[in-house]
Each structure stands twice: as C-alpha cells, then as structure tokens.
Amino acid sequence: MKKLLTAMFAALLIVGCGENTKKPSGDSAESNQSSGGVAKINLDDNETRNRIIAEAIDAHNLKKRGKKGEKLR
Questions:
Q1: Helix (H), strand (E) at residue 63
Q2: Separation of alpha carbons 50 and 41, rounded Å
Q3: What is the pLDDT of residue 29?
Q4: Which residue has the higher pLDDT, 28 or 54?
Q5: What is the CA radius of gyration of the chain?
Q6: How far is it, in rounded angstroms, from Cα 37 to Cα 33?
Q7: Is 50's pLDDT higher than 80?
Q8: Is the CB of residue 35 less than 8 Å from the CB of residue 41?
Q9: Would you state the pLDDT for residue 47?
Q10: What span, in angstroms and rounded, lies between the C-alpha atoms of 45 and 50?
Q11: Which residues are CB-neighbours of 42 under 8 A, at least 6 positions away?
Q12: Is pLDDT at 30 greater than 60 in this prediction?
C-alpha cells in the first residue's frame, strides 16, 4: 500500500508540474494571453497606456498609517 501511494504521488507530481508546450496559433483571443491565462499588455499602444495611467493611484494621495518601521496587521 505504501509503495502504491508513493508511486501515485510521484506520478501526480510529474504530471502536475509538467510544462504546457502548446503554442497559440493565429490571431485568436488565445494569442493575446500568456500561458498563465493573463492577457499581455501592449505598452506601445497609447490608448492602453492612457487607461493604465488614468486608473493608477498617485503616491501622494495615499494615507500613511502607523509609526515608521511598524508593520500593520
């Protein structure tokens, strides 16, 4: 029983940690996503850059809490 569990664990570890070698083809929606499922951001596109800047938080508008060096929980 112990050997069977060890073999199953090793098999699952190998399969679970395997790399996805499938490459997207063409101009489908999948081609705009990386292997992690997150869309790639084209920073050369002015519209995309302006949208990111508009949604960004200005560091001067953040409120400081706690004493210097103290960690918040």
A1: none
A2: 12
A3: 45
A4: 54
A5: 23
A6: 6
A7: yes
A8: no
A9: 92
A10: 9
A11: 48
A12: no
